[in-house]
């Protein structure tokens, strides 16, 4: 007989836990879904009456939350109560790159995962299915199982791997119509039963042929592999962008030409100032670390190159700005349009903007930033995290203005760091008139109309052109 899930708990109310559970709850009104977090401020924001105050910005998320919240979707800080009541527990906590000890700067830090496993082990009085939603190194399910099974209280656990493939900025749309849902589990009778229970949750809205089931290790490794392949495409086209610049080829034309080959495909070929986000770098470093730990040095080196190329692309963009501005940017105002790592999100983790700003501030430029969704406080904290200089110096060199025209006024140069749609619609003539001359634009996202800008009088640098 199929086990029907009635009560879900999700530990971690972040960029993944929040939207994923909101959609699961919306699509399964008969399942009670409780999202818990130790961050009380975040939970309060999820419960805020004003939907503009939700802790993350994702197009369409407010409507989903509005429909399901307080019906069968709840946000709470009472982690123990939610664990106790649930028959299925998702672990969706952060798994950042380790900043200390063995594997520092490479391996995933699994301390939050282990804490969750220990808390589940301590609290659980009835059998549970534990679902890894966080991105984890292959074979982590073994660790979780070992912690859970050594409690000695007779409770039985099944562990599933169900990695999340949503991209920020399109999270709701990705969750509503995923290319696939991946569920890995033990290939035993009880394991298969647990897999079937989770398939049942997703099949409320995902066509059954799009729900893939595998063994645990394939599922865990597929997540790291998917991100490595995606990031590798960006680094590949970025590597070619520099060759385009020196040969007269146009990177968008090259991308279009190769993307028409159905074996290559058109997506993820947009050259840029470099990929950011909380996942790509972390997951590839993790993959590299795992390969090295098995002694697979050539495999590790192959994937590490994706990160090396990405770092180079960010560095190259900043160097181009310095060089073009006559190798002296000390005291010059440089306007940044965008700080988020991509459009339609307020997330700034690993955003290229942070690294470009840091490099320009080393040359004592005054960076003034406008981003429609990122707060000034977040920008300062991103810069401070790099630890390059004192917080006071960062406050002096990086300021934020909430109006794009004011941001660009009197600037020597504008750098586009995020591809927000609104940038295309600005009155560029007005911006030009208020700038220092020559007025430079460095389009790190290839989003502006360069011909129009040149006609106005701008000197334009665009990646791969
Ligand atoms: N951000 C994405 O787009 C994305 C997409 C797919 C997969 N992932 C993966 O999903 C995982 C979560 O990522 P995220 O972006 O949602 O992270 P996040 O930092 O936004 O959220 C994680 C949340 O977990 C909470 N938390 C940590 N330990 C806890 C504990 N012991 N008990 C209760 N709450 C705890 C934190 O307070 C935080 O609010 C990561 O493994 C990430 O790699 C992220
Ligand atoms: O052609 C492209 C595509 C993307 N990017 C950049 O790459 C980064 C990542 O973009 P994207 O993948 O769209 O967003 P993420 O939210 O980081 O999503 C990735 O990381 C998630 C976390 O693991 C996965 O779930 C998603 O499937 C995977 O796309 C951003 O800085 C983009 O600007 C480019 O420069 N060029």
UniProtKB/TrEMBL annotation:
Binding site for substrate: 164-168, 223-227, 263, 270-276, 341-342, 445
GO molecular function terms attached to this record: NAD binding; UDP-glucose 6-dehydrogenase activity
Any one biological process term the GO annotation gives: glycosaminoglycan biosynthetic process
SMART domains: UDPG_MGDP_dh_C
Function noted in UniProt: Catalyzes the conversion of UDP-glucose into UDP-glucuronate, one of the precursors of teichuronic acid.
Organism name: Gelidibacter sediminis
Documented EC number(s): 1.1.1.22
Residues of the UDP-glucose/GDP-mannose dehydrogenase C-terminal domain: 335-450
UniProt protein name: UDP-glucose 6-dehydrogenase
